[in-house]
Amino acid sequence: MHAVPARSATDRDRAQNLDNGATYRGVMLQLVCARLGITLLHAKPYDAPARGKMERFWRRMREEALNHIGEVASLVDVEHKLRTWLGRFYQCTPHAGILGRAPAARFAEGDKVRVSEQELRDALTVRVRRRVRRDTTVNVGGTVYEVPLGYLAGHLVTIATSLFDRQLPALELENKRIPLVVVDPLHNATRKRPPRQPVPDKPERPVDFDPSHTLAPNPEEVSDDELF
Q1: What fold characterizes domain 9-117?
Q2: Stated pTM of the model
């Protein structure tokens, strides 16, 4: 899973016209588009003219960017160079397919819907069901995390991960989000396990243990016959 660059707000497209390949038909992509109200369109199979602008974009990116990208240290470096090429050379260059207009100027003229950072985070949140192990750990995406609630051992729980940022997964329980931490193998082998029973909430006020109050009849439950 890759994180999406964090922005305070962005513009939402009304529709996305994508290729018909398996990469663009994933369940997660369909779910995110449905959450944001984006119509997902796919080109017909074996219909090359329907993908003309897509294929032209990939060809230009290979010729002007990928073939001259040089040495890179990580995927983050590749993304930075591609974003630089998009901003400086592609989006500001006139295109014959849009009558000599630049893509950035053409996009600025269209109607857009603003999407807040929280809406993006909610739309890009993935939830999975996992069973907590007896040592109160859970495996998510190949990484083992500690569950701070011992009574959940052996139970199925819901784990939420946001693709919007690089925050760690969180356990969703009773309308609460409990952040998870990556297991330290050495510490986990010797640490004291959390209690297997939920810890009761502390009372908000002192409990009245006066037996006379307990045995006394409730005035609301006394019938009229008992008064005479």
Answers
A1: Nucleotidyltransferase; domain 5 (3.30.420)
A2: 0.58
